[in-house]
Amino acid sequence: TGNLFLDPAFVNTASCDSRITYIDGDNGVLRYRGYPIEQLATHSTYLETAYLVIYGDLPSAAELKTFEERIRRSTLIDERMRDLFRCFPRRSHPMPVLAAGVMALSTFSEKSAGIEPDQVENATDRLIAKMPTLAAFSYKNSVGQPTLYPDNSLSYIENFIRMSFGFPTEAYEFNDEITRALEVLLILHVDHEQNCSTSTVRMVGSSGANLYSAVSAGTNALSGPKHGGANQAVIEMLQGIRDSGMSTREFVSQVKDHKSNVKLMGFGHRIYKNYDPRAAIIKEHADNILKLHSGRQDLLEIAQELEETAMSDDYFRERKLYPNVDFYSGLIYEAMGFPVNMFTVLFAIGRLPGWIAHYREQLATSNKIWRPRQIYTGEQERAYRPVDLRP
Ligand code: CMC
Q: Per-residue pLDDT tens for 369-387?
């Protein structure tokens, strides 16, 4: 094995140079292309942030307009792809349906299913434009409702909300606060450097596979509960506390007792040893959104009390465990009307520009296929025995 260095789970291994996202976990700092996440969440739009992350700089007014136009023109999916959704069982989980939809998209445009710069550019537009359409169709399929065509007079976020919650025969009424909260949540999820799904995208891309293959693989990586699924676990934990009638103090005592194997979901992070800056922003929006839905505030109140109880406890202080991005995001999604199995799909829409940016950065800077080594711990050489001579 020579001088191989074993690093399970890549805890201490940097796989690449990257100019996209900066994280300082000790001080709770997150920046896309140098811009603090707080400023982007306050002032930017999802499409502008996508442009920033993919192309490296904020667009001029003209560049933004052209980009938005390019996306607007590509939101429809081929009619035969609509038929594809009918093949999945009613009420299929929307996440595998989304991943399959992304992969199927590559077969509907030979122009973009390659790695030449113009092909990647075309695939970038198509993926950003069609992801909300695929996500909304996956959702409608999962709840057994008719799908809606995109309405390109609407904004990117409005279009997705309408395709998710509208019905073909009824006008859909938007709530500005909900539209903006969803936009902010997507902005906060746009990139987070070498997380599991983004590293998957880079790994697949390193083989020379096209952008659709890499993004579809990233979507599947995101589906795991240790990655995209934690926000669902938070909702289930809060419901459990509510339904059992126990106090947050009692729950925190259970968490501290290691034997119980109960974790405070939505707390702690491999990199942040301080308040996750995304959680601070989401918390404010959760407050506003849940005010619109009296009756849904019980879980928010439990979450806020749970945070207070944990943050004043030595167990959490000593281990530097703070709320992460998932602690409040599920509450907002739930209040918007999304079922828990859609939470990871929303994460995927948010993360898409990050995946694309990393794929393109890799393509532009390295043509080496990723190929980690291993330390072999199996049998030494032994001789083959025919089956009738084996014990
Ligand atoms: N509740 C109670 N104790 C915890 C928690 C928690 N949520 N997180 C960590 N600890 C304890 C852990 O038991 C250990 O204690 P000790 O030193 O006494 O053995 C100590 O804190 C260090 O934890 P660790 O498991 O070594 O930390 P890690 O970096 O391997 O794990 C984590 C990070 C996020 C997997 C973990 O904090 C966790 O399971 N949190 C709950 C699940 C969650 O919210 N996940 C979302 C992550 S953010 C979304 C994303 O990026 O995809």
A: 999 999 999 999 999 999 9
Distance, in Å, from the CA atom of 278 to the CA atom of 188, rounded to the nearest integer, reads 6
Choosing from 192, 269, 285, 358, the catalytic residue is 269
Helix-helix angle 230-244:343-365, to 10 degrees: 160
> CA–CA separation, 269 vs 376, rounded Å?
31
- List CB contacts of 158: < 8 A, sequence separation 6 or more: 174, 179
In short, whether 268's Cβ falls inside 6 Å of ligand 1 is yes
Average pLDDT over residues 279-301: 85
Tokens representing 171?
């006008």
Ligand 1 pocket check for 189: Cβ under 6 Å? no
Q: Active site includes 189? A: no
Of 377, 353, 338, 347, which Cα lies nearest the Cα of 164?
338
The tens digit of pLDDT for each residue in 220-241 reads 999 998 888 888 889 999 999 9
How many Å is the Cα radius of gyration of the chain?
22
Burial class of 349 by CB neighbour count within 10 A (0 to 12, 13 to 18, 19+):
buried
- The number of the ligand 1 atom at minimal distance from the alpha carbon of 269 is 34
Question: What region does 168 belong to: left with phi over 0, alpha with psi -120 to 50, or beta?
Answer: alpha
DSSP 330-387: HHHHHHHT--GGGHHHHHHHHHHHHHHHHHHHHHHH--PPP-------S--------G
pLDDT value of residue 245: 95
3-class state of residue 109 by DSSP: coil
Output the six-digit token pair for 275: 């308040």
CA 266 to ligand 1 center in whole angstroms: 9
Query: pTM for the complete prediction?
Result: 0.94
Contact 340, 232 (CB under 8 A): yes
d(CA 98, CA 217): 11
**CA 265–ligand 1 middle distance (angstroms):** 8
Tokens of 124: 């970038």
Burial class (CB in 10 A: 0-12, 13-18, 19+), 144: exposed
